[in-house]
Amino acid sequence: MAKKRILLVEDNPATVDVVQKELEFLGYDPITADTGDKAVEMAEAHLPDLIIMDISLPGMDGLQATALIRKNPKTQSIPVLAATARALPGDREKCIQSGCTDYIAKPFTHRELGAALKKILKED
Predict the structure, then answer these.
(1) Distance (Å, rounded) from C-alpha 12 to C-alpha 49?
(2) Which of 7, 32, 34, 107 gets the most CB atoms within 10 Å of its CB?
(3) Residue 82 to residues 1, 3, 4, 10, 79, Cα–Cα distance (Å)
(4) What is the pTM of this model?
């Protein structure tokens, strides 16, 4: 069975490095983008099984990128996991209303990330 491809959208190189390694350890095939614009392009080009979307990005933020991904018939059904340090009351709801499938607060543990991915991808 082919590995599920996950698009990691994150502008902090240290976070990219750590999360990319975690995704590989969990058995996924990660690809990365460091801006909202690149995320939208890569979602259409690669049609990943899931997108982990940082919300605070330079230029187009993660919520704007998610909205564009949702408007595109080719990418609209790709699940989007919002990953953000914004963990204030109402932030989760804002992410879900913007089209994200689920939300995970940073910093998250290896176990929390794995559980969130399995839930969204409906893996046992």
Answers:
(1) 22
(2) 7
(3) 27, 21, 18, 11, 10
(4) 0.96
